[in-house]
Amino acid sequence: RAVAMVKAGDADAVVSAGNTGAVVAAATLKLRTLEGVDRPAIAAVMPTCGNPLVLVDAGANLDCGPRMLQQFAIMGSVYSSAILGPENPVVGLLSIGGEDIKGNETTKETFSLLQDSPLNFRGNVEGHDLFEGETDVAVCDGFVGNVVLKTGESTAHAFAHWMKQEFKKNWIRLLGCTLLRGALLSMKARLDPEMYGGAPLLGVNGVCIITHGSSSRRAIYHAIRVAAESVHHHVNEEIVSQIGKLSSTS
Question: Which residues is 16 bridged to in the sheet?
Fold first, then answer.
């Protein structure tokens, strides 16, 4: 019903903490894709040492061709610029090596497409590059993206668990923990995915934000905020414009 309201023009955006597959299916079938977009993609925002990273696709499409990955790069770049701040987002193609000859046939062909595009393309990036803060948008298929996303989330949870175990070993460490409380709370806030407002489904003809099923009220608040910002900054219109420019020059 929420998607139908967007389709009818009774709402500007839909925010859902429901089943991700169901949300993607409903939005794709009812709203359809934007002009020039083959398939929509989930963009997950992840914290880094610098600006937040947009990982796209994070799970909507398991098998992607070079043209789709090129479109993901454009959509991720538009979203990063409009919502997260960088004027000319740095785009990287997730691969198994930094050299342009590394990767499979799909990534090699995608590399050529991105290199010839007007995007600020830095080339291939590896897993250890993602959190250094030098890349604003990381492009990959949904299979790889979903593995990266969930691995990052589980690593953060494990790190927090290890820290608690170490601090509880004796009273001196507990005292140190008390003295570090401010810094630890700041770090926790920086690593909190709820601050980034969920994952937008980019490429559908309407604003759609997907949040985690266990989202708190704060996560829902930020998801609504990001949805409103996406409407205000005309993210979809900019995606259509950028993909249109690319098609006219190719």
Answer: 210
